[in-house]
Specification:
This protein is an alpha/beta fold and 260 residues long. The chain has two domains: 5-187, Vaccinia Virus protein VP39 (Rossmann fold, 3-Layer(aba) Sandwich); 197-259, rRNA adenine dimethylase, C-terminal domain (Helicase, Ruva Protein, domain 3, Orthogonal Bundle). 40% of the residues lie in helices and 19% in strands. It has twelve helices and nine strands. It has a seven-stranded mixed β-sheet. β3 (54-58), α3 and β4 form a beta-alpha-beta unit.
């Protein structure tokens, strides 16, 4: 099966890594599993061996969707759709375990879309995703590090995250030019509530668009009384965006929401 570059297709073929990914999910026969971008079904095959209650796969490529239907028959539900158009539809009484070798070109959009869902932990138990290594480093980055930014803050707001392994390009077909990383993401039962998740995304975008500059500039952009707001937040306006913790950004967001 020829991969489509336009869909960011790189199929993971190494059986050892595929089995490791499935083991991370600790799948049992009561589980509902969602797989994003199953491709030719290499990971799907390993998931089915664990005998979950239900398996749903979302595959945008119509040809691959037909192949999956023929290969696995009635063992799974194949949805021929873009995950970004249907991610809101999976609401079951049992929280889902989600697997995905995500297309590089939309991986961050997929992640942010799930984070922005209401009742995330009600509908999702675990995400086991493969990202481009560079993106993975931004997801797991800690405050005061060079990779820390919007993605780190948005993810850690609602999820506990852990990098498992880096994956050599040779284990994919076609072989990508970059390394990948396997990450687990566990939705938090408790987190600081905001009126809209998009507000936190908006604020972190403003700050990290000027990541080399002092936070005085983005604060000025967000608040007419920025100096007073900074005092209220106990913020040094000479700091850089990467120096502020996730909790501090949420504090900023709460004040922003009160004013808008």
């Amino acid at each position: 099966m020829k991969a489509k570059k336009s869909l960011g297709q790189n199929f993971l073929k190494d059986q050892v890594i595929l089995k490791k990914i499935v083991e991370l999910g600790k799948i049992n026969n009561n589980d509902i599993v969602l797989e994003i971008g199953p491709g030719t079904g290499n990971l799907t095959e390993q998931i089915l061996k664990k005998n979950p209650y239900k398996v749903i796969v979302v595959e945008k490529d119509q040809n691959l969707s037909e192949i999956l239907k023929k290969k696995f028959g009635g063992k799974l539900d194949v949805i021929n759709e873009d995950i970004l158009n249907c991610y809101k539809n999976f609401k079951f009484n049992t929280p889902l375990k989600v697997f995905g070798n995500l297309p590089y070109n939309i991986s961050t959009k997929i992640l942010i879309s799930f984070i922005q869902l209401d009742n995330l932990s009600k509908y999702y138990e675990k995400f086991i995703f493969i990202f481009q290594k560079e993106v993975a480093e931004r997801i797991i980055a800690s405050v005061n590090s060079k990779n820390y930014g919007r993605l780190s803050i948005m993810t850690s707001w609602k999820m506990n995250k852990s990098k498992i392994i880096d994956i050599d390009p040779k284990f994919f077909y076609p072989k990508p030019k970059v390394w990948s990383s396997l990450i687990t993401l566990d939705p938090k039962m408790k987190f600081q509530d905001l009126n809209k998740a998009k507000n936190l995304e908006h604020i972190t975008n403003i700050f990290f668009n000027q990541r080399r500059k002092m936070i005085k500039n983005p604060m000025k952009q967000l608040f007419s009384n920025f100096e007073e707001t900074a005092k209220k937040l106990n913020l040094d306006l000479k700091l850089r965006p990467q120096n502020l913790s996730k909790d501090k950004y949420i504090e900023i967001c709460k004040i922003y929401e009160d004013l808008n």
